[in-house]
Write a structure and sequence with these properties.
Elements lengths: L11 H19 L1 E4 L2 H4 L5 E5 L6 H6 L7 E5 L6 H9 L3 E3 L8 H10 L3 E4 L16 H10 L3 E7 L1 H4 L12 E9 L9 H12 L3 H8 L29 E3 L2 E3 L6 E4 L5 E3 L9 H18 L5 E11 L6 E10 L3 E6 L4 E5 L4 E6 L3 E6 L2 E7 L7 H11 L5 E2 L6 E2 L3
Parallel strand pairs: 1-7, 2-5, 2-6, 3-4, 3-5
Antiparallel strand pairs: 6-7, 8-9, 9-10, 10-11, 12-13, 12-18, 13-14, 14-15, 16-17, 17-18, 19-20
Length: about 400
């Protein structure tokens, strides 16, 4: 084995080189506060580190304070570019295709355990779009039950408000990382899978708006509302879809004139018209329910956008551009019409691994081929297509989230 690598695959010189300067920058940029009990500081591997996923920087916020390399299970999207692939390999990341069975990673996880390493997992499988912990992937509890290792949780509060997935700009306020031991090692017998799932679900629950209601921390940065139309795509007044526009600190509808101001505490304030929703979460809940009704009662396109691009690929291999054209969502399928007239049809029930990558790229597998759709205009919402496809596929399973009383679909 390469003498410059730890036995668990991470590069010691790379970890030592980047750890301190990156942590100093993160603490300065986001004002990070860390609480680690002594039982975790002294805990030796192997064990599993889990965290809620609120911002791009979560792996570093969660791992660096431990002062030990953590082998995170990461999206294979991060391995498609040579530079990122080199960095991810030096960090010992384990590539995984989102929301698709990946039996090959089990052997890599077992190798980390054999060398007494730390495995990092984000059980949601993606960053939150509105600041609430989403449904956890059931395979995570299966894996934790099978391993029987100690499970350490780090809850990251304030991260979503510092740099939400829909924004290109970060804000400075405060991020709090709190560590706790969720499950001890299963020595004599393994914990029941149901107990493991309930325990990690309880420990990872987080709602940034409830947290902010208690803390009232200002998050200051430039153009705080820019790109809000990526996540908020239906006007609550005229009910037009895909027409909202953000500019600096405001989000407005050009069709009816309704507008709101995004505040430093992450809520909405009145501009001229009476305020309909005071928070992003309430707006998102309403538009999801409204979208469900649109899909149920529509025989034509619910959404459509021009200047779209279709890419093909597979796992961590580089993507290749297949076509340019337009995209539309119907009640049971996604259609891509190329500029040359070729029509690609993607039935919702046959799509696997539906997810978002890089903030505004829709990805899925169809016929064992990875497809990516994005737009030349970065303000066009791919999220609305994701939500629509999930509703198309799980319309009969459209449920009220048991912990937050919000309308939700499983991912």
């Amino acid at each position: 084995m390469n003498q410059f690598l730890y036995r668990n695959g991470t590069s010691p010189w790379f970890f030592r080189l980047f750890r301190r300067p990156l942590w100093l920058w993160l603490k300065y940029r986001f004002n990070i506060q860390v609480t680690i009990p002594s039982e975790i500081r002294t805990l030796e591997g192997p064990y599993v580190l889990i965290a809620n996923h609120v911002t791009f920087w979560d792996p570093f916020i969660a791992a660096i304070p431990l002062q030990k390399p953590v082998r995170f299970i990461a999206s294979d999207n991060l391995f498609r570019r040579p530079l990122f692939r080199w960095i991810m390999k030096r960090l010992g990341a384990i590539p995984k295709t989102k929301f698709v069975a990946n039996p090959e990673i089990v052997s890599r996880i077992m190798d980390v355990i054999h060398h007494k390493g730390i495995i990092g997992i984000f059980p949601e499988g993606h960053r939150t779009w509105d600041g609430r912990t989403d449904s956890l992937m059931p395979e995570v509890s299966k894996l934790l039950t099978r391993l029987g290792l100690p499970v350490v949780r780090v809850k990251i509060s304030g991260g979503y408000l510092s740099h939400p997935i829909w924004s290109r700009f970060s804000r400075k306020g405060e991020i709090i990382a709190e560590y706790s031991l969720v499950l001890p090692a299963a020595k004599d017998h393994k914990f029941p899978e149901e107990l493991v799932f309930e325990r990690i679900t309880e420990q990872l629950q987080y709602n940034c708006e409830e947290w902010q209601e208690a803390n009232r921390i200002a998050y200051k940065g430039r153009k705080p509302a820019e790109y809000l139309e990526r996540v908020l795509y239906i006007c609550p007044v005229c009910e037009s879809a895909g027409r909202l526009i953000s500019r600096n600190e405001q989000l407005f509808c050009p069709d009816c004139g309704y507008s709101v101001r995004y505040t430093e505490t992450g809520g909405f304030a009145q501009v001229i018209h009476p305020l309909i929703f005071s928070s992003l979460q309430k707006w998102n809940d309403w538009q999801t329910a409204f979208l469900h009704g649109m899909l149920t009662g529509s025989s034509g396109a619910v959404f459509s956008d021009e200047n779209a691009r279709l890419w093909f690929g597979y796992k961590s291999s580089p993507l290749r551009k297949e076509a340019a054209g337009s995209v539309e969502l119907l009640s049971n399928e996604l259609r891509f019409r190329s500029d040359e007239g070729t029509v690609y049809r993607f039935p919702a029930e046959k799509l696997e691994g539906l997810n978002m990558q890089g903030g505004n790229n829709l990805e899925f597998y169809y016929g064992k081929v990875l497809h990516r759709i994005n737009f030349t205009n970065p303000r066009v919402s791919c999220y609305k297509y994701l939500r629509g496809l999930l509703l198309c596929r799980n319309r009969d399973e459209y449920i009220i989230h048991r912990n937050t009383d919000r309308l939700s679909t499983g991912t």
